[in-house]
Amino acid sequence: MRTLEVRRHTMRRKPGQHLSQDGIELARLVGDQSGPFDVVVSSDVPRAIETAIAMGYEVNEIIPVLGHLPDAVFEVGVWPDSFDRLAQAVSSGGQVGRFADEQSRIWTGIARRIPDGASALVVTHGLFVEAGAIASLPEADHASWGDAIGYCEGIRLTFDEVFKDCQVLRVPEEY
Fold first, then answer.
1. Of 39, 86, 146, 148, which is the most exposed, with the fewest CB atoms less than 10 Å away?
2. pTM (2 decimals)?
3. How far is Cα of residue 116 from the mean position of the Cα atoms in its chain?
4. Which of 59, 48, 44, 42 has the alpha carbon at shortest distance from 11?
5. Cα 44 vs. chain centroid, distance in angstroms?
6. Is 164 helix (H, G, I), strand (E, B) or coil?
7. What 3-state DSSP class applies to 13?
8. E strand or H helix at 7, and its extent?
9. End-to-end distance of the chain based on CA atoms, in angstroms?
């Protein structure tokens, strides 16, 4: 069995691309409570790379598509929305369904590359996490997963040739 943890980046100082001090502190807290990871993968967006580093992990691989949301998906307006509502958009196919399937394929490739018993961390973005989780476990009770994930929140998937289980990972409410 392999484990894949997928997290949204932490807070940044908008409109800039770099993390805020609060974001760094949250990433440290989350990093102290997760891992260790055998492989760490990030999008090419600075806030995602910096989140992994602030969590205490070296980024081993950058996959640009983990950080580039197609305009057609963004325009559908499904984020931030609950897992259940997003699952409806994913199951109806179209751009959102294709986007979700692409995320799941990327995650499957990462999970297949790590040895049995190993774990990997993927740091990406909001909507990427939810859509990929839904596509990875299309028959799951998505309503039980709750609202859209927040900063540094994510999911933990178990993998044994296919994804088997999903745990939603939340952060303390003060963040």
1. 146
2. 0.95
3. 21
4. 48
5. 14
6. strand
7. coil
8. strand 2-8
9. 32
Whether 169 contacts 154, CB under 8 Å? yes
- β-partners of residue 11 are none
Q: What are the structure tokens assigned to 130, written together?
A: 């939810």
Q: How far apart are CA 162 and CA 16, in angstroms?
A: 38
DSSP, residue by residue, 91-141: HT-HHHHHHHHHHHHHHHHHHHHSPTT-EEEEEE-TTHHHHHHHHHSTTS-
Residues in the chain: 175
Site of tokens 């984020």: 79
Rg for the chain, CA atoms, rounded = 15
Q: What are 59's two structure tokens?
A: 């980024």
Nearest 5°: the CA angle 98, 103, 121 is 170
Structure tokens at 17: 């691309």
Cis preceding linkage at 46, omega within 30? no
Q: CB neighbours of 175 closer than 8 A, spacing ≥ 6?
A: 22, 26, 150, 151, 152
Q: Please list the pLDDT of the chain residue by residue as tens digits (175 residues).
A: 999 999 999 999 888 889 999 999 999 999 999 999 999 999 999 999 999 999 999 999 999 999 998 888 877 777 788 999 999 999 988 899 999 999 999 999 999 999 999 999 999 999 999 999 999 999 999 999 999 999 999 999 999 999 999 999 999 877 6
